[in-house]
Every structure is written in C-alpha cells, then in structure tokens.
Design a protein that fits this description.
Low-confidence stretches: 1-8, 351-360
Strand order of the largest sheet: 2-1-5-4-3
Shape: elongated
CATH class of the largest domain: Alpha Beta
CATH topology of the largest domain: Heat Shock Protein 90
CATH superfamily of the largest domain: Histidine kinase-like ATPase, C-terminal domain
Number of domains: 3
Distance between the termini: 54 Å
Number of strands: 12
CATH architecture of the largest domain: 2-Layer Sandwich
Mean pLDDT: 78
Length: 360
C-alpha cells in the first residue's frame, strides 16, 4: 500500500529529523518523510514514484552504496557522499542503506546532512592555523624590528661623514629600505590590536573600499554591486573590517592584473554556526572576480602568512584579513576556478562585544 493512501503506516518515520526514503525494487521512491522533503527542497508529491536517477543529477555514488548494501544483504553506511538534486546545489551527506525483506519497499535509505560537521571541522583547522599564523608573525616582527633602528641610524651617521655628497644616494637606499621594512613590521603587528566595536553600516564601508580600488585602478577594473539594503547594522570595528575587505578586494584586482570585473554581493544568512557558536543572523559578503583563479596548489594555503601567488607579493594581505575577521567571530573562505574566484566573509550580525573587545 502506498504511503499516500496509508500515511499512518509510516508514522514513526514522519517524526524523524533524519531524511528517510523507501525505495521500490526498481529504485523508484515509494515513501519520503518530511525531513527528506526539507533536505531536497522537493514536495512529497513530486518525490513519490520518482526514480533516483531522475531525482539526482549525479546519482553514481549513491547507486554504488546501494549496490554494496544489496550485495552484502545488510546495512551499508557511506560516511561522506556528495550528490545534487536536479537544478539545485550539491549536498554533503552521510548515507545508510538497509535492504528490507517484507513489503513493497525494498530499501530504506537514511540521509544526514554533514555540512555543519564539515564546517565545524574546517573552522577548528582555521583556528589552529590562525594561532600558528599569530605566533609566526610575532616572531618575525621581533626578529626584524630590533636591528632596523640600528641599521637606519648607522646609515644616517655614515651619510654625515661622507666626503662626496653624491655617495649619499647609497645611504638613502639603506634608509628607505629600512623604512620599508619598518612599515612591513608594523603591518605584521597591526592585527594584534583588539577591535573597537560600534554599530556600522557595512555598505558605507564597501563604498569607501570601492572608491579606493577604483582610484588605484582608474582604467580596466569594473566593480559591480549587488546589495541587500535590508541588512541591519553590524556591531564591529569599522577600520578593521574596512582593512579586511580592502585587502581581499585589492587581491582580486591584482589577480585580474587591473583588467576585469569584480562583484560585491551582500546577503543575510540565517541560522549559521560561526566560531562554534550558532547565530540567528549573519552577514554574507561575497567578493567575486573573473581573474585566472588561485593555483590549486596554493588554494589550501592562501591565508597562510608569506604565501603569495603574485610575484613581489608579501603574502600578508589575506592573512591580516583573516585575522581581523576572526577577531569578529567570523569566517572567510575562498573557492576558485579559472574565471571565477569567490572570497566569502561571514560576520555575525547579532553579536555583542564584551569588555575585552571580543564578541562572547
């Protein structure tokens, strides 16, 4: 008897938070519980009678799991499965398949969303990476800063002792390079300043950043905006968030070699977990460019200090951006392919700063 004619026969499955499908022997869907409707964003009416191969745009991994369950004649679990419902984004799931011996349904398929677990694991790795970054930055800063004053002072004294004025250009090179290194050290130490939180309109920050980048690249760079104007104000340090966004946007412009299109997109994200804490609302800021993309071998290390895909780059801009975002209990991630790179900054909207300058 079908689920639609006798819904009470599946009353136990109706209450489960886990998505459950019952499949007939031809792998058509015999039953789907409400959790499955929510997971796939498809109504039960559309699901029932649908073959799996039609429902999913790439059902190969799921079919392989089903084959293993049928061959073993027992439950089979695939801990990490990536599938996509037709016309929708890909889902990261764990899947348990159990053959049934009685009734019309031949297989019971349980599906659990693991995106949250993956995100938590990724955030834990990022926190460890940020701690390592801070330690490296602190050590580098101290190692570089101490000799700089002596080098600069010695060059100034030497300049006064030179008998030939034209030789002063060499001491000026020493002084200017010492000043450049001093500026670099200051940039290394800057992220350790605690945020100064206040209510801020993110779109005012983006307008400033946009004008700065367009002034740097008056020809060739086009910056398109797609804003959700209903976004509430953020409780943040506007200078730190401006610097973080500026670093990412400048990185995008440099990747495009001053020629291309960059998109700034703001949206509200709901019920998201950031820094191991659940937030009702968050800002999702996407910075997209049509440049050549991040080399695959650098993508996993793009936020590490002193790692740069650009010749002459310091490899500090994205590290500083990540540090500032992390101090706001947010996250920054990058996905990249040739012609489409996206940096996504997530910041909690409903966070309140504590007395130490951090959100609780």
């Amino acid at each position: 008897m079908s689920a639609s004619r006798n819904p009470q026969s599946f009353s136990g499955l109706e209450l489960l938070a886990t998505a459950v499908l019952l499949l007939e022997r031809d792998l058509a869907i015999h039953y789907a519980n409400p959790a499955a409707e929510n997971l796939f964003e498809v109504s039960k009416k559309q699901l029932l009678g649908q073959p799996l191969a039609v429902l999913f745009s790439d059902a190969g991994p799921l079919m392989q799991a089903i084959d293993k369950a049928l061959q073993s004649r027992g439950s089979f679990t695939e801990q990490e499965l990536e599938i996509a419902v037709q016309g929708r984004q890909r889902l990261h799931l764990s899947c348990t398949i159990t053959p049934l011996e009685q009734g019309r349904a031949a297989l019971l398929v349980e599906l659990r969303h693991i995106d949250r677990q993956l995100r938590i694991a990724r955030e834990e790795r990022l926190l460890e990476q940020q701690q390592a970054n801070r330690e490296l930055i602190r050590n580098l800063a101290h190692e570089i800063k101490n000799p700089l004053g002596g080098i600069r002072g010695a060059a100034q004294l030497l300049e006064h002792e030179l008998s030939q004025p034209q030789l002063a250009e060499y001491t000026q090179v020493i002084i200017s390079e010492a000043d450049r290194l001093q500026a670099l050290v200051n940039r290394l130490l800057t992220p350790h300043r605690l945020p100064n939180f206040r209510l801020t309109n993110i779109h005012e920050i983006l307008a400033r950043v946009r004008s700065l980048i367009l002034a740097e690249y008056p020809q060739g760079i086009r910056i398109v905006t797609d804003y959700d104007i209903s976004l509430p104000e953020l409780e943040c340090d506007p200078e730190q968030i401006l610097q973080a966004v500026l670093n990412v946007l400048r990185n995008a412009a440099q990747a495009c070699q001053g020629q291309g299109e960059i998109r700034l997109v703001t949206r509200v994200a709901r019920q998201v977990t950031l820094a191991r804490k659940r937030h009702r609302l968050a800002l999702a800021l996407a910075i997209e460019d049509d440049g050549p993309g991040v080399p695959e071998d650098l993508l996993g290390r793009i936020f590490y200090p002193l790692v740069s895909a650009r010749e002459g780059g310091t490899g500090l801009g994205l590290t500083i951006a990540q540090t500032f975002v992390a101090q706001h209990q947010g996250t920054i991630e990058c996905t990249s392919a040739p012609g489409h790179t996206v940096f996504t900054i997530m910041l909690p909207i409903n966070a309140t700063p504590n007395l130490n300058g951090h959100t609780p």
